[in-house]
Give the backbone structure.
Amino acid sequence: MSIATLAQPVSRSSPLPEPPPPIMTMRGVSKGFGQGITRTEVLSNINLKIRPGEFLAVVGFSGSGKTTFTNLLAGLEMPDEGEVLFEGQPITGPGPERGLVFQNYSLLPWLTVRGNIALSVNRVFSHWPSRKRRDHVEKFINMVGLKHAAHRRPHELSGGMRQRTSLARTLAMKPKVLLLDEPLSALDALTRSVLQDEILRIWREEQQTCLMITNDVDEAIIVADRIVALNPGPRASLGPMFSVELARPRNRTELNHDEYFKGLRNAVTNYLVAVRQKDRDDQAARASQPRFELPELEPIVPSKPSVSVFSRSVSNSGQ
Ligand SMILES: Nc1ncnc2c1ncn2[C@@H]1O[C@H](COP(=O)(O)OP(=O)(O)OP(=O)(O)O)[C@@H](O)[C@H]1O
Ligand SMILES: [Mg+2]
């Protein structure tokens, strides 16, 4: 195609390409826990469309409802209001097409690293020959650097090693949608950046869709196509969507001097700081309000005791 052709404006009559339908949708989703006065409203009116093939990062403060949000997408929780769709169909529970890396690892304590990964691989790829399944398990053990610890059980692993096992277990299932709930939070900075690169490589090679929860704005910018903030709870809602217009692969050292990167990091951080400050101000205002509205009461002025009551009591006491 010549440059002249490229430079021609798009004719008004030519239809714009239809965007592909979202792979996952949250429509008017609200979720709370408990009953009566112990009830906590966690999420309120969440609307989100996750595009097929994108890498979406969700940033938010601790306790804002990020795990609840991920569990709803995984089908481990059901919304109180609204609906969660996968490829246009309401989800009714967990499924192998949506792989979740749990924040608390959730490994089976009686199985080794290899056993935990193999359990999922054998379930999802039961139609593969056993040799292929074994090689697949070993590939993911190596990928997360746990070859030397493959025979250990979870209680013999550090927090970071458990996190890597949990990550390998989910990645090995090759789900269409990867749901990562702070998957790298227990890792040192070096291991963290190595695994960020591995997640990005697998996401690209497998053409997956990925949603990663993180509380690290830099990490969100390094990995994501779009970043959305989860506002502080209770009744947390989604904040603005930030597009990450940075070419891939992204070089961390170069990005530290990149004006666009620094501007985006400031924009996301400033939004989070401002929304938390507003939340604190609102809480302080609520705390200074009286907790109960007292009704207007007319004082009851006791009238003189009636003679009959007085005389009866006197007469009773004399019996
Ligand atoms: N099963 C549950 N029953 C009752 N309350 C719950 C339940 N799950 C979560 N919550 C409450 O919902 C709120 C949000 O919890 P959630 O774990 O989703 O937050 P989070 O953003 O993931 O926190 P963190 O950053 O610490 O992981 C908290 O107040 C929590 O106590
Ligand atoms: Mg959480």
About this structure: Residues 33-34, 40, 42, 60, 62-68, 103, 233 surround adenosine-5'-triphosphate (ligand 1) (CB under 6 Å). The first strand starts at residue 24 and ends at 33.
